[in-house]
Amino acid sequence: MSDNSKKDEVIAGLSEKLDRSCSVPVLFLALSAIVWLLVYSLFSTVAGFRVLSPGWLADSAWLSYGRLQSTSQFVLHFGFLVQLGLALTSWIFSQRGKTVLIDVGFIYFGALLWNIGVTLGLLGIITGESSGLEGLQMPSQIIPVLFIGVSLIGISLIQTNNRRTDEKMKPSNWFLFVGLLWLPWILGGSYLLLYTIQVKGVLANIVDWWFIQNFSMVYLTFVALGLITNFLNLFSNRNMGQHSAMLAFWVLLLFGSLGGVSPGAPVPAWMPALSTVSSVFYFVGVLVSISWIWSLQSNLVIKSTDGQLALFLFRLSLGAFAIVSLIKFVFAFPAFGLIAEFTTFIPAIKNLYSLGFVGLAMITAFVYIFPRLVGISFSPTISKYQTIFLILGILLSTIPSAVGGLLYGDGKLNLGLHISSVGNLIFLFGSFLLFVNFIGAIIVAMKNCDCLKIFQNQKQLKQAES
User: Fold this and answer.
1) Quick check: helix, strand or coil at residue 2?
2) Other CB atoms closer than 10 Å to residue 251's CB: what's the count?
3) Could you report how far apart the first and last alpha carbons of the chain are, in Å?
4) Comparing C-alpha atoms, which of 26, 171, 183 is closest to residue 96?
């Protein structure tokens, strides 16, 4: 046996051990995220039909459209996207660093606190205790719980990254590491300004816009780009465009943290102007990042069917990233931004970004690594329909509503809202299939490893002793 073959066997054995070592915390975070995705799908579907039929469920205050919509967005961002992003970041830091996760107990306790915070936040919003802010809808008492939860998870992941075997971090790790630091920073900073210093009126809205801008344009974007580039490096087994990656990283970080103020906001004129300027430079960073990612795909050959499907879905999510970034760039200018303001266009585009770019990239990455974590793949049949429903649901729930908002404004119901409601229902089916697929695969994996027999034997032993 050649030295290269022995080296490949050692690397494969180490990779398998690392997969097993981080499987439980990753699966715990992923299961929590998928459950919250199902909750989001249910709430957004009911909210969509409430718009079309205002008299339906009109006697229930907690099922009003405003509460359902706010709750669904809160659950989507904090329940699903954040937790699945943390799960995938945990796996990548372990694999890339060739080290086991450090202090896993912090991840379990932090994830438990985070889920408690999301649950309490959901109950607070649905019962009318919302803060009234768009990005930080949850009651003020929930933010410290979320802050502590993500900080505990961050302690484990930062230590894991610091104990990596390679001294130089890969570009994908840059994005994931900064995203890991950015979320507690914007949560803590927003809480300090809103509830400790207690800024009021339009200043509170400015803080909320700052949070939304940083959460979407920096945190979610960095996590998604880190995931996609990591797997493209994994497929190609090479790193390219270090200088382009560094340029994209700093431009997106600097100008993504500024702005977020719409052209018609009741604030001093320099704030919307600054937002427009930052949007222009941010779009330059988007172009650089797409050029860099495109270089990773040159002469890429993938033989496995799972790898080909993952590559197609990653490219689809990157397409959503490019299209939405172009739209945001155009509508950052007052001539176009004032047309779309106060219509369904803006929330639809935000949803397309969250689900079509970030959410699709996360789901694709998780489905791809799932067999490495548990030793068994998702059901191919369910996966096929699950993928179709999710993609179709994302497109139908966002694009028609965006087009209808531009054409008709918010003055009356239009065909776009009807199609979007159907899209929400289709996405609900896709989310349910993903949940069923996950649970079914876990049950099969437990049967294969005789985990259930161990519990049965323990139960029989206790009965015999009694």
Assistant:
1) coil
2) 19
3) 57
4) 171
Extract the tokens encoding 70. 């706010």
| pLDDT tens-digit map of 429-459 | 999 999 999 999 888 888 776 544 433 444 4
Question: What is the chain's mean pLDDT, rounded?
Answer: 86
Report whether pLDDT(6) > 60: no
At 360, the pLDDT band (50, 70, 90 cuts) reads very high
pLDDT for 71: 92
User: What is the 3-state secondary structure of 99-155?
Assistant: CCCCCHHHHHHHHHHHHHHHHHHHHHHHCCCCCCCCCCCCCCCHHHHHHHHHHHHHH
What is the per-residue pLDDT for 324?
Answer: 93
Residue 153 tokens, joined: 């998870």
Exposure class string for 382-408: b at 16+ Cβ within 10 A, else e: bbeebbebbbbbbbbbbbbbbbbbbeb
Task: Give yes or no for a contact between 217 and 258, defined as CB atoms under 8 angstroms apart.
Answer: no
At 411, the pLDDT band (50, 70, 90 cuts) reads low
Encoded amino acid at 360, one letter:
L
Round to whole Å and give the CA distance between 287 and 283: 6
**CA-to-CA separations, 110 to 28, 207, 211, 440, 441, in angstroms, rounded:** 12, 26, 22, 26, 26
Q: Are 184 and 111 in contact (CB under 8 A)?
A: no
